Amino acid sequence: MKVMDKYEVPEGLFYTKEHEWVKILDDGTVMVGITDFAQQELGDVAFVDFPELGESARQSQVLFQIESVKAVADVYAPISGEVVEINTEIEDSPEIVNQDPYGKGWLLKIKPSNLEEEKKNLMTPEEYAKFIQESKK
Fold first, then answer.
1. Choices 3.40.50.410, 2.40.50.100, 3.30.70.1670, 3.40.710.10: CATH for 2-120
2. Which residue in 16, 29, 115, 135 has its CB near the most CB atoms, within 10 A?
């Protein structure tokens, strides 16, 4: 796991410029969450307005919103496909997103429709770490 300044950027994940992370699971689905950088910028997460199961996700388009004490933030679909699972624990305990953004704080799973092609639009941990550093200047 990379820790640059005060942000964790785990290996083995892909990242977006909108600060979502993607983990490709063995069953072919992808797990999605927001990064450590995003949760720190948002502050205390108060509510997640999840999409419906079965909803279509289109890469780079707004999929749902997260509300924090500071702001309401759009969460973009990092990959196109169908929403197949949401993390229902977050509905009762949204603070998990702040406490463990890369573990228990995952948000949803998508069954991708074009993973190999769209993966090219995502960043590696190294690219994302550099992106954060440049955006903080």
1. 2.40.50.100
2. 16
Residues 17, 40: Cα–Cα separation, whole Å? 16
pLDDT tens, per residue, the chain with 137 residues? 455 568 999 999 999 999 999 999 999 999 999 999 999 999 999 999 999 999 999 999 999 999 999 999 999 999 999 999 999 999 999 999 999 999 999 999 999 999 999 999 999 999 999 999 888 76
Give the residue extent of every domain in the chain.
Answer: 2-120
- Dihedral angle over CA of 53, 58, 59, 62, nearest 10: -70
CA dist 75 to 1, 27, 93, Å? 23, 24, 18
